[in-house]
Amino acid sequence: MEEKKFAGDVYPKFRAAAVQTAPVFLDRDATIEKIADKVKEAADNGAKLVVFPESFVPTFPYWCLFLPPVDQHPLFKRLYENAVEVPGPAFARLQQIARDNGVYLSVGVCEKSTVNFGTMWNTSLLFDDEGNLIGHHRKILPTWGEKLVWSFGDGSSLTTHETALGRIGTLICGENSNTLARYALGSQGEQVHISIYPACWPTFRAATNYEDCLRVRTCGHAFESKVYNICCSAVLDEDAVMQMTEGDEKTREWLLHLADENKPYAMTMIASPAGVPCSEVLTDNEDGIAYADIDIANEIAPKGIHDIYGAYQRFDIFQLHINRTHRRTAYLYAETDDEGEELFPYTEPADTED
């Protein structure tokens, strides 16, 4: 029987792709060319939104979780040397990849300051299909050992982005366990959520079940907010393990055999507003791309049942206040003469978000 069509507003439909793969360890330019190849593959398969994992360019600093701080300096230096400036040549290449393939592109990068030498952030960049930067989110609070690597972000990027695909929001790794951060995006009309992760998270010597943790987070937020949630994680390859543990055979063996203990590796999937997978689920540190056909209209009926940002909320009881001002290193005041002219004119650097 032919489906009846009724007059009314039409909402976006598109294919999303979440790429689970490994970067070229601590090689920014080679990793970006790998992104170019994967984006083309996804676009050839009809994807309009392509997502890459946390700190994919040039790698996630796994060493901060298992190496003593005194042994991390060489890797920290290499990470900074291969980090991404916004704007900069690597940034421009990512713009070109999005533009050439006509896709919205979400990429996790290690970002370095254009002003303060040595400062880095855990950042997610979102480009539209013409290569324009529309989302620039710095992780508001580095998690655990990440504090040895990254500076804090601020509330200025806790926002959603109005696009032809719907309103898109992004959180990085542990932020997806922060109830208030997730609520901040949902309260701004989020319809598509991007959540990005590293390949594994060894918090204990005995491997933890990271895969199930991510599955719960992904499906939980999708169901709670009635959104599509794109969970995208990386792969940890042997080359990365060998470079991070050079001369440390005990740590190398531990990392290489994490999978023998439990399910320590991440997973990649896309969850529907019903809180269930609507794509292939990639696990076990395997390379692949998870695809899902997204229909924003599928979020309407569940909101009629349980809308925590609208009819199913008590705003007279609960209130969330969000400080969305940029955090700066310093606030500089000019000295003036009797006529109010600056005696020592100062031009503020472009990187005002520091």
In brief:
The chain has a single domain, classed as Carbon-nitrogen hydrolase (Nitrilase/N-carbamoyl-D-aminoacid amidohydrolase, 4-Layer Sandwich). A 6-stranded mixed sheet has the order 5-4-3-2-1-11. Strands 6-7-8-9-10 form a 5-stranded mixed sheet, with helices on one face. The protein has 354 residues and is α/β, with parallel strands linked by helices.
Distance between the termini: 60 Å
Tell me about the largest β-sheet: 6 strands, mixed
Secondary structural class? alpha/beta
Secondary-structure element order, as H and E?
EHEHHEEEEEHEHEHHEEH
What is the count of structural domains?
1
Mean pLDDT: 94
Unreliable stretches (pLDDT < 50, length at least 5) are none
CATH topology: Nitrilase/N-carbamoyl-D-aminoacid amidohydrolase
Number of helices: 8
The CATH class is identified as: Alpha Beta
Record field, number of beta strands? 11
Major beta sheet, strand line-up: 5-4-3-2-1-11
Helix content: 10-25%
CATH superfamily: Carbon-nitrogen hydrolase
The 3D shape can be described as: globular
